[in-house]
# Entry
Amino acid sequence: MKDEERGHGSEACPLRLVSGALAPHPLEGVCRFFYEIAAHVERWVGPIEHVHHELASEHVHIDVFHVPPNPKRELHTLVTAGMSTRPMKPPAEAAECRLVELVLTLPRDWSAGPAMYESAAHAWPLEGMIELARLPHASGEWIWGGHSVADPDARAFHSSTALCAWLLACPMSLPAEFHFLRLPSGEQIAFFGLVPLYREELELKLHAGLDALLDRFRARRLSDVIDPQRPNVASRIRPVRPPRRWR
# Structure
């Protein structure tokens, strides 16, 4: 597949990316587990059609595998490869929780290939995914399943949605065998799905805990598939002033 670079206007994805074949980009560094992650994704999710490559990287180089709808799974799946290049610095009680990659699930009609670079309305999940994959290495913060992240003012990701924060959770719509990848060294990479949240849902998690939020998701039969207009399961929660990064 020939690499294809797209221009970015005011309503385009602000990230500098190219779409290419399943191989490291020749101009940038590569995740040290690139091929192990690719094989894991193809085994449990489906064939990788192409890779979103960064043209410029800071701290770590993040590639994103794109698996389009297929007989195993009628959804678009995006999986990072690069966050695990460097181990995070978790607290001593979670010393083994050092390697993570992220997963996004998009509906079948979403523009999840190179065309998404031309539309910020479609690109915001990819933009947020790459930003979160770089966060532990840029800030020294540790992120894991059950953690949530938002900017101080909890601004919406895009004008087309009121979603404004991210929750890391087990990939709800993927088999349990996919959730961890055991490496030859004995270490393992954990894969966490990204679930966008409304401000009130994040506040519910802070006030009442993760289980209270997930119980409401289950009651409404919501999944980790991105839906910019999905119901808000916590619209009546009292607002709180957020810190810089929420967990």
In short: Confidence is low (pLDDT under 50) at residues 1-10, 237-247. Helices lie at 34-44, 120-139, 199-208, 210-219. Residues 4-219 form one domain. The CA atoms of residues 200 and 236 lie 7 Å apart.
